[in-house]
Automatic annotation (TrEMBL):
InterPro entries reported for this sequence: Acyl_CoA_acyltransferase, PEP-CTERM/exosrtase_acylTfrase
Entry protein name: PEP-CTERM/exosortase system-associated acyltransferase
Keywords: Acyltransferase, Transferase
One GO MF term attached to the UniProt entry: acyltransferase activity
Gene3D superfamilies per record: 3.40.630.30
Domain of life: Bacteria
Organism: Pelomonas cellulosilytica
Length: 257
């Protein structure tokens, strides 16, 4: 336990969302819902992938077999976010190998057996209504946020909810390092909320200009224990069940699908 974890105030950083680890063999219907969610966003909304390649309206790829899947729901039980952690397998490496195999000078990658890549991170468009919101549901921020309260009010709740499940899963399964291919401004915004990713690859064109980033979860824990011990305490605590309701939920979280 880090020194600042003791006697910290209890705060729920994602009170209006609940995330779970989805096991395909146990929840095939949920997996199909996720694949359609991916199709709607990646193929129809963003046009990253051609719709014609997925005539059944279900977006899937070769990396799904070696992935752990996580999704977020709002308090009415509606699917609002998805992300997967891709582990290297005997037949496939990490997705970022497909578009960026070069590294920045002096970079050495950690063992593949202790690593996973954050992939297909997306949030429903109903929760991306503010100017500057990214596909991941993060609002692009600057350094002018005057207080911790304002920073918390602007926090990406859906992303944080899913990150907590990925973090708990990673700790339980021996994953220490996270890769992510993302835009520079997204990496910067995540860093302001405590998720410090270091750029390890050059910028390339992959659904737009992105670079490969790497986070060491042990270093992240140490940094967040100093900068935001309440967030670290929350990340380490498994989320409980939530009651499906809409009363008392701020209007900005009551998406109309």
């Amino acid at each position: 336990m880090f020194a600042n974890e003791e006697n910290v105030e209890s705060i729920d950083f994602a009170p209006y969302f609940n995330s779970v680890h989805v096991l395909p063999q146990e929840s095939p219907d949920k997996l199909r819902e996720i694949e359609n969610f991916r199709f709607q966003i990646y193929c129809r909304e963003c046009c990253f992938l051609p719709e014609s390649d997925y005539p059944d309206g279900l977006e899937r790829d070769a990396y799904d077999e070696s992935s752990s899947h996580f999704c977020a729901s709002n308090l009415r039980g509606e699917l609002v976010g998805y992300v997967r952690l891709v582990k290297a397998s005997a037949t496939a490496g990490f997705p970022f190998f497909d578009h960026c195999q070069d590294l920045l000078p002096g970079i050495s990658l950690p063992p593949a057996s202790e690593s996973a890549e954050i992939s297909r991170l997306m949030v429903h468009s109903a929760y991306r209504r503010r100017r500057g919101d990214t596909l991941a549901g993060v609002t692009i921020l600057d350094d002018s946020l005057p207080s911790e309260q304002e920073r918390r009010d602007k926090s990406p709740q859906i992303l944080l909810s899913m990150y907590r499940q990925m973090y708990l899963y990673s700790v339980a399964t021996g994953i220490r390092y996270w890769y992510a291919a993302m835009e520079k401004f997204l990496a910067r915004s995540l860093g302001m909320f405590g998720f410090d990713f270091k750029q390890v690859g050059p910028e390339v064109d992959y659904y737009g200009p992105v670079a490969t980033y790497l986070a060491d979860l042990r270093a992240l824990e140490a940094a967040v224990s100093q900068s935001n011990p309440m967030l670290l305490a929350w990340l380490k605590q498994p989320s409980g069940g939530v009651q499906i309701r809409s009363e008392g939920v701020p209007e900005r979280f009551q998406a109309k699908f």
